Structure formats: C-alpha cells, structure tokens
Amino acid sequence: MNKYGERITTRGISGQLKKFAEKYGIDKAVVYPHSFRHRFAKSFLDRCNDIAFLADFMGHESIETTRIYLRKTATEQRKLLWLRLKTGWLKPEVI
After folding, report:
1. How far apart are CA 14 and CA 77, in angstroms?
2. Which of 60, 63, 65, 72 has its CB 3.0 to 4.6 Å from that of 76, i.e. a possible disulfide?
3. What pLDDT shows up at residue 47?
C-alpha cells in the first residue's frame, strides 16, 4: 500500500527505487523494477542451477525466455576468463 492507502503501482515502486539509488549513490539510470527481476533470476541460477524451475516460478511459457538470464555481461565474461587463466583451466595460447 502506498501512503494514500492504495495499491502501489509500478511507477510508484520505480520512484522509490530512484530515491534509494540517489540516497546511496547508485546510478539512477540503471535502477528500475525489472532490474531486480533480472538480478533475482541470475542469483537463483548461480545458486540452484535449475532453469526449468526458474521458468515456472517466473511465469515464462518457454525456457527460451528464461535463457536470457544465462547470458553473461562483458564484466562477468572478463572475470570468468581471468579466473580460468589464473587457475590453469584455460591456457593463454588457446586465446
């Protein structure tokens, strides 16, 4: 419920998120309600590795929709590559 006793809207949530972002020094341009959905899905997959369950939980009719959350950002790819090089899992001459 919002401060007027009415159902909170997506726009109301978005406004609150922007206020929190400003308060905590986070770039407001990257803070929006759907980003939390993405973060949840990626965290769930990192911990549980069950894409079929996640697809059902998120209400996706197709696992293909859920596969979006398997994609790695450029930063995540660099970290993964560095870790694999550092641990010897991947040899530099392969790159």
Report:
1. 29
2. 72
3. 92
- What is the phi/psi pair of residue 3, to 5°? -70, -10
Tens-digit pLDDT profile for residues 5-58: 999 898 898 999 999 999 999 998 888 888 888 889 989 988 998 999 999 999
- Do the beta carbons of residue 31 and residue 18 sit within 8 Å? yes
Q: Which of 36, 30, 28, 29 is nearest to 10 (CA)?
A: 36
Average pLDDT over residues 48-69: 91
Do the Cβ atoms of 37 and 14 come closer than 8 Å? no
Residue, of 92 and 38, whose pLDDT is higher: 38
| CA atoms of 27 and 77, how far apart (whole Å) | 22
The token pair at 75 is: 């930063």
CA angle (73, 74, 78) in 5-degree steps: 120
Q: Could you tell me which residues come within 8 angstroms of residue 69 by beta carbon, excluding any fewer than 6 positions away?
A: 38, 41, 42, 45, 54
